[in-house]
């Protein structure tokens, strides 16, 4: 038992080593999106004044704004702006396949996915929403602490080859964001989307791909292995496989897009060699979309 | 050793290795290229895809063939193939090795010693006895045959000698030979009379083999004067191809250090065995030359020493004190100077001063009396060998010198007044010269018809007069008289040294007479009669390798021996000093030639056969290496690994191989682009930021010029001083960076040519201040370092009335990004003054070749392609004003470059219009 604190400490230090840069990067990314006053622009529950309107029959007497009504003959009601917070649940693929990169600067799909997710979380939290992670890992809450917790959780790496979205813990009528390369079995995502649709959860699918996954620039006798080495495929002429691989990739993208369309979700592909800010902006607008 | 036609193998059993090639073929065929393992998440999409073909399953046949050839080349290489192997059959009996041992051997002495060493080693292997004889250093008794290894021990002491073998001694020695032996003759390659007899004697005792080096034998004849130049003739023994040899003149520089003073090229025509190099040396340099050498030849024959024969005389010119501002042509010394400057060194000064310099000759033109002290020292000088030449003239005629008694410094007594012939107040025609008598030093000179004497001083008839006259007029009046005093002599011309009294100084005869007088004491080759009974001491002697050594310890040489000028053991080539002169003895005489040996057909001559043993191992290994390199590239390409940085590296190598011809092909287009329009240029410094700024600056300036003036430049170009032609550009902007490379010698030559031919360079240290040449900034120091090699005139800060201030705009400030006022241009000539009615001086009649400043003009001019300024200048509107003034300075500068001092001349326009009556 004596070495337990030590193990814990070293483990947490390893964890923290990746964590502050991730947080800093996400914060930095988040600042690139300027948000105005995060109002809903319609009447609802809230503290801020929205508009005066004539009182209707169904309005309660106590909601009449007497100060305004006293200046005329009719009764007026002061509407507050609708400020109810949304719950947004995120799932970020932390599997081994996300740790792939072919870029010189070493940007892996995983790091880009985490940065994007955390940055949008920061933005949404600033906008007053509640943000959490799916799978009952981190229930949606508000506040800066949530960012730190999210960052800590996202910093973990999973060992399985491909990730499957966990649709548990989703609140009804909330929003969701799934970030992954969607290279694994698609049944997982189908089930998750079905569950989400059952609970009237809308959201966005972001597929993060490495440029070499789009281009397939391989040649000659090659043994392809998955990131953890469990899956492998040998070919004698990699170039011949290129067209068929690209066909399959396009099919997969189509399938994801149609899946998203059917569930009323948004779908987008992001490449790690393009700037993260555009993807962040897309995520933000996709989640902002009115239900 | 296994022989297959012209090829033999040193270790033929290694060729068995070729048997493994078929096995290797099967093995390599069976093994496909190794796969690459790649981590790739998209593998999920690949599952289930199969290959269309299985073609690359095994290595392609051509790659296999490539590898097999490489392996075969390696195996064959290590089997030691030899092309044209030489076979030798061992001899028997004693071996006599004869070495000529002359200077001609010295050129490759160590190789010869190696060859002798090999011959001796071979003799030792074969158990033969041997003897070694040097023909230039013959032993007194017949050779004693010893164990070959014992002879080998003495090899290091073997040295060549700088002279040819003595024929008579050789014959005696050949007669004393006895017994049977084989001879190996190391010949120096030069034909000699003594060779045939010796060869016959040697063949009587056994077989003779000769060795001759294929390297050419070169020699130098003694340097000679020809048309005031020194010519040196190079000789060679074998003709056949055209060869250039460089001949170097070596001597002491003013600091007393021996160095190369000059060099010239002698070109042997294909059929010629002689070539002449001409040295056009200034006299000062010529007097310093101590020897000529063929460059790169280590041999006494390739060195020729010079003696007094090449020295130039020093002549002092003195005229009587002149009291008028005489014109040049009336100066009594003018014609003398003109006549003597090409052939002698002239000394100026007072008599006392020039006597200290101890000249060879002193010429007094129309000098009357000398003070007693002067006369005494002069007389001493004449008696110790000086030549005094006097010219008459009004002053001499008016003085009483040598009137009653003969003056020691005059050859004759003179009558009062002299005479005048052919003038308005006299009878008779001007007199012409009589032909020179045979006793005269001028004998043989042709007398031009137009030489006439109108006035002269006349000698008193004396008993000695007749023998002192060396030139006279047609009527017998002495014109030039001479007497000797001590070991010197005194000459009097009875006319003036200028054209007042006669036309003699105007004629070519005058020069020839002076030459005869002054030159006749130039030492020529001494004859045997001159040298009989004299003894000469060697000062420096040459060894066979052409190295000069002090020779204080050698015994003296008789004059008769010296007169033969043939070096021998008693008289090695070198410089011999007598009482008053030094004589050089050279290996090759004035008329010697070099002739190659011709051996009878029965004698085997080694070293000249063209077919040489060639080892092929290196070539085969190199071929294998090349094949394996191709194999690397091909394998990489086949297995799909030739991408990314590897492909870039391969491509770089290939492009580098092809780029040279392309670069040459671009030359013309560069020239056309640079000359189709006015193009402003900047020097590429290697600092990208600075170069970009220069480009943008000149672009901005070009734009401004286009908009405001009739100069319409096209895009500016960056130039590389090393490779680009500068003559296309009227103006070059040169920003100085601290870490800039200094131009090479060729680039400096190009820059100086550019500056002299009217180009302008604007040096910009870009540091605001340090155009003061203060060198306190790194850029300032770099500018100094760069400018050191440039031909830059004296500079001054731009004066207020410099034409740069008004070529287009009226300016007094020349700011760039910095507003410093210190901008330097070529200084005005010293005498420039403001004349009346002119607002400014009439200054330099040309373009200042350089403008030096530190205001970083390029930054102020710089715009992007849309015309937006790139660099903020100053603050607010004042800054914009500064930018505008900077642009105006640029406009003025280019105007100045292109129009010169046109604006200076414009000041005369009102006067011109006035004169035209308009």
Strands in their spatial order, largest beta sheet of chain A: 5-4-3-6-7-10
CATH topology of the largest domain in chain B: Rossmann fold
Estimate the strand proportion of chain A. Answer: 15-25%
**Poorly predicted runs of chain A:** none
What is the structural class of chain A? alpha/beta
Fourth-tier CATH superfamily name of the largest domain in chain B: Domain of unknown function DUF4159
- Stated plainly, the CATH topology of the largest domain in chain A is called Rossmann fold
Q: Could you tell me the mean pLDDT of chain B?
A: 81
Count structural domains of chain B: 4
Through-space gap between termini of chain A: 52 Å
Largest sheet of chain A, if any? 6 strands, mixed
**Quaternary structure state of the chains depicted:** heterodimer
Q: Rg of chain A, please?
A: 23 Å
CATH architecture assignment name of the largest domain in chain A: 3-Layer(aba) Sandwich
Radius of gyration of chain B, CA atoms, in whole angstroms: 42 Å
CATH architecture of the largest domain in chain B: 3-Layer(aba) Sandwich
What best-fitting shape of chain B do the alpha-carbon axes yield?
flat
The separation of the N and C termini of chain B measures 107 Å
The largest sheet of chain B is: 7 strands, mixed
């Amino acid at each position: 038992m004596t070495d337990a604190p030590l193990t814990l400490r070293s483990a947490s230090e390893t964890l923290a080593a990746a964590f502050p840069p991730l947080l800093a990067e996400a914060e930095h990314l988040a600042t690139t999106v300027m948000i105005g006053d995060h109002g809903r622009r319609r009447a609802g529950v809230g503290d801020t004044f929205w508009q005066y309107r004539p009182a209707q029959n169904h309005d309660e007497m106590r909601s009449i704004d007497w100060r305004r009504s006293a200046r005329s003959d009719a009764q007026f009601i002061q509407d507050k702006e609708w400020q109810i917070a949304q719950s947004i649940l995120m799932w970020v693929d932390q599997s081994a396949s996300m740790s792939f990169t072919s870029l010189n600067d070493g940007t892996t799909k995983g790091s880009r996915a985490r940065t994007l997710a955390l940055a949008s979380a920061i933005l949404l939290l600033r906008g007053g929403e509640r943000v959490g992670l799916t799978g009952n890992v981190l229930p949606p809450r508000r506040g800066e602490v949530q960012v730190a917790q999210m960052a800590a959780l996202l910093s973990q790496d999973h060992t399985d080859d491909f990730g499957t979205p966990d649709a548990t813990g989703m609140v009804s009528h909330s929003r969701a964001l799934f970030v992954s390369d969607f290279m694994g079995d698609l049944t997982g995502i189908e089930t998750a989307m079905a569950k989400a649709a059952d609970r009237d959860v809308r959201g966005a699918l972001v597929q993060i791909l490495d440029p070499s996954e789009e281009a397939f620039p391989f040649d000659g006798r090659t043994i392809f292995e998955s990131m953890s080495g469990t899956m492998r495929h040998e070919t004698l002429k990699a170039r011949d496989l290129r067209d068929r691989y690209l066909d399959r990739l396009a099919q997969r993208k189509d399938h994801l897009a149609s899946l998203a369309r059917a569930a009323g979700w948004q779908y987008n592909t992001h490449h790690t060699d393009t700037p993260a800010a555009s993807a962040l902006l897309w995520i933000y607008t996709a989640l902002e979309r009115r239900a | 050793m296994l022989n297959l036609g012209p090829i033999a193998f040193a270790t033929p059993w290694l060729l068995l290795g070729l048997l493994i090639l078929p096995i290797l073929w099967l093995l390599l065929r069976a093994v496909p290229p190794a796969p690459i393992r790649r981590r790739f998440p998209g593998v999920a999409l690949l599952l289930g895809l199969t290959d269309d073909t299985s073609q690359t399953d095994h290595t392609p046949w051509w790659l296999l063939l490539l590898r097999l050839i490489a392996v075969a080349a390696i195996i064959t290489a290590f089997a030691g193939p030899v092309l044209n192997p030489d076979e030798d059959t061992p001899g028997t009996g004693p071996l006599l090795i004869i070495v000529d041992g002359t200077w001609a051997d010295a050129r490759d002495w160590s190789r010869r010693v190696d060859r002798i060493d090999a011959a001796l080693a071979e003799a030792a292997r074969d158990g033969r006895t041997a003897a070694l004889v040097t023909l230039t250093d013959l032993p007194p008794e017949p050779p004693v045959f010893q164990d070959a290894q014992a002879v080998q021990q003495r090899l290091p002491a073997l040295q060549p000698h700088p002279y040819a073998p003595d024929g008579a001694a050789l014959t005696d020695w050949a007669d004393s030979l006895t017994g049977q032996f084989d001879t190996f003759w190391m010949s120096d390659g030069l034909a000699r009379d003594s060779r045939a007899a010796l060869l016959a004697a040697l063949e009587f005792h056994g077989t003779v083999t000769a060795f001759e080096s294929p390297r050419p034998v070169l020699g130098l004849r003694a340097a000679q004067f020809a048309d005031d130049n020194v010519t040196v003739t190079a000789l060679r023994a074998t003709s056949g191809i055209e060869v250039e040899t460089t001949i170097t003149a070596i001597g002491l520089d003013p600091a007393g250090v021996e160095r190369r003073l000059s060099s010239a090229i002698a070109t042997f025509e294909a059929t010629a065995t002689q070539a002449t190099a001409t040295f056009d040396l200034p006299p000062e340099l010529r007097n310093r030359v101590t020897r000529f050498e063929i460059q790169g030849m280590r041999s006494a024959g390739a060195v020729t020493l010079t003696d007094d024969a090449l020295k130039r005389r020093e002549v002092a010119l003195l005229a009587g004190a002149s009291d008028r501002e005489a014109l040049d042509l009336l100066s009594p010394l003018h014609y003398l100077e003109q006549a003597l400057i090409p052939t002698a060194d002239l000394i100026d000064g007072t008599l006392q001063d020039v006597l200290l310099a101890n000249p060879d000759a002193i010429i007094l033109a129309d000098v009357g009396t000398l003070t007693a002290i002067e006369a005494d020292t002069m007389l001493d000088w004449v008696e110790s060998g000086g030549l005094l030449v006097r010219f008459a003239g009004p002053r001499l005629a008016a003085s009483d010198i040598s009137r009653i008694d003969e003056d020691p410094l005059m050859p004759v007594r003179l009558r009062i007044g002299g005479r005048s012939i052919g003038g308005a107040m006299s009878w008779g025609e001007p007199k012409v010269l009589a032909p020179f008598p045979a006793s005269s030093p001028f004998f043989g000179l042709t007398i031009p018809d137009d030489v006439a004497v109108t006035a002269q001083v006349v000698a008193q008839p004396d008993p000695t007069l007749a023998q002192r006259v060396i030139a006279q007029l047609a009527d017998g009046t002495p014109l030039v008289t001479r007497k000797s005093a001590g070991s010197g002599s005194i000459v009097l011309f009875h006319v003036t040294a200028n054209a007042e009294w006669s036309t003699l100084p105007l004629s070519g005869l005058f020069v020839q007479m002076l030459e005869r007088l002054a030159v006749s004491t130039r030492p020529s080759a001494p004859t045997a009669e001159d040298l009989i009974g004299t003894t000469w001491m060697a000062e420096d002697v040459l060894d066979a390798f052409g190295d000069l050594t002090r020779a204080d310890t050698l015994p003296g040489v008789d004059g008769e021996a010296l007169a033969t000028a043939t070096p021998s053991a008693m008289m090695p080539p070198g410089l011999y000093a007598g009482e008053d002169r030094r004589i050089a003895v050279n290996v090759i005489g004035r008329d010697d030639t070099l002739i190659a040996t011709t051996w009878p057909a029965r004698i085997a001559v080694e070293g000249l056969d063209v077919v040489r043993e060639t080892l092929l191992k290196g070539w085969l290994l190199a071929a294998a290496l090349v094949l394996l390199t191709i194999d690397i590239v091909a394998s990489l390409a086949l297995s799909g690994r030739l991408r990314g940085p590897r492909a870039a590296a391969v491509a770089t190598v290939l492009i580098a191989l092809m780029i040279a011809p392309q670069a040459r092909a671009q030359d013309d287009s560069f020239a056309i682009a640079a000359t189709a329009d006015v193009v402003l240029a900047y020097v590429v410094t290697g600092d990208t930021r600075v170069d970009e700024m220069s480009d943008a600056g000149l672009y901005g300036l070009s734009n401004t010029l286009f908009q405001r003036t009739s100069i319409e430049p096209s895009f500016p170009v960056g130039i590389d001083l090393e490779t680009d032609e500068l003559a296309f550009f009227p103006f070059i902007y040169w920003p100085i960076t601290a870490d800039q490379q200094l131009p090479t010698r060729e680039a400096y030559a190009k820059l100086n040519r550019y500056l002299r031919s009217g180009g302008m360079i604007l040096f910009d240290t870009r540091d605001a201040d340090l155009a003061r040449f203060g060198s306190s900034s790194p850029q300032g120091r770099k500018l100094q370092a760069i400018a050191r090699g440039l031909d830059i005139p004296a500079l001054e800060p731009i004066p207020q009335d410099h034409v740069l201030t008004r070529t287009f705009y009226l300016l007094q400030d020349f700011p760039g990004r910095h507003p410093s006022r210190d901008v330097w241009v070529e200084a005005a000539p010293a005498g420039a003054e403001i004349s009346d009615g002119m607002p400014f001086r009439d200054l330099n009649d040309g373009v200042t070749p350089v403008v030096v400043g530190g205001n970083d003009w390029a930054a102020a001019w710089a715009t992007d392609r849309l015309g937006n300024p790139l660099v903020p200048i100053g603050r607010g509107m004042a800054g914009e004003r500064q930018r505008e003034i900077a642009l105006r300075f640029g406009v003025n500068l280019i105007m100045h470059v292109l129009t010169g001092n046109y604006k200076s001349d414009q000041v005369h326009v009102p006067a011109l219009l006035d004169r035209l009556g308009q």
